C-alpha cells in the first residue's frame, strides 16, 4: 500500500500535476487532491485528546460590607494618608499571593481631630494563606519599638486580601478590636485592607479600605465595620529618600515573607 502511494505521487510529479493537501478539522481527515480536484488519497488522522479545563477555586470566605458612617454617628475625625506609605503597602502586598500583615503609624492631633498615616512598618508573619494571616508577636513588638524611636505612634494595622475585595471578614473585625485594646484609648486605631490582585482593581490602583469597628446604629450588642473617607496626600520630596531607607531597613523583614515568584 505504501509503495502504491509513493508510485502515485511520483507519477503526478512527473506529469507536473500540482498536489494540494487540506485538513478537514471537523472529521480529522487528510485529503490529497490532484489539480482537477479529484481525491486521490484519504488518510484518517487520529483524534486529539480533549483539552483539560483548569478551574481556579476562589477562596471561600464571607466578607462583611464596610458601610459608611450614618448621619446619627458621623465620622469623628479626618484621616490623611501619605502617598509613599500607601505605595509601600501596595508594593509589599504585591510580593505575595498570600496575606501579609503589618503595622501603620503616624500622628494623632486631637485638637484638629486629624489622624495622619505617614509610616508603614513591616512585620514577620508566622502563618499565612490566601485567606488568613497571623502576625508574629515578637516581630510586632520590635516593629512598635521602631515606630516609637521615630517619634511616631502606632495607629493600627494593615493586611492584604490578595485576590478578593478589601472588605473585612469576621476574623478581621475580631483582630481590629484586639489591636484597639493593644493600642489603648488615647488615640484612634484603624484597620487598613488592600487588594493587590483583585479583579476590581485590574485596570486601576489597588482598592483599599480604612475601617473601624463600632456599634451598629440602634443596637448595643452588635458591632459592624465602618469605612473612613481618606485623603491621600502627596509627599514627593520624601519619596526617593523613603524608598532607599525602606530598602535597607526592611530587607530582612521582607525576606521572611512568602514571595510571588
TrEMBL record:
What is the protein's given name?
MPN domain-containing protein
Arranged from A to Z, the UniProt key words for this protein are:
Hydrolase, Metal-binding, Metalloprotease, Protease, Zinc
Q: Which GO terms describe its biological process?
A: proteolysis
Example of a GO MF term: metal ion binding
Report any Pfam family annotated for this entry.
Prok-JAB
Q: Can you tell which superkingdom this protein's organism belongs to?
A: Eukaryota
Which SUPFAM superfamilies does the record associate with it? Answer: JAB1/MPN domain (SSF102712)
Q: Which InterPro entries would you find in this protein's record?
A: JAB_dom_prok (IPR028090), JAMM_MPN+_peptidase_M67A (IPR050242), MPN (IPR037518)
Species of the source = Zophobas morio
The similarity comment for this entry is:
Belongs to the peptidase M67 family.
Per UniProt, residues of the MPN domain are 79-214
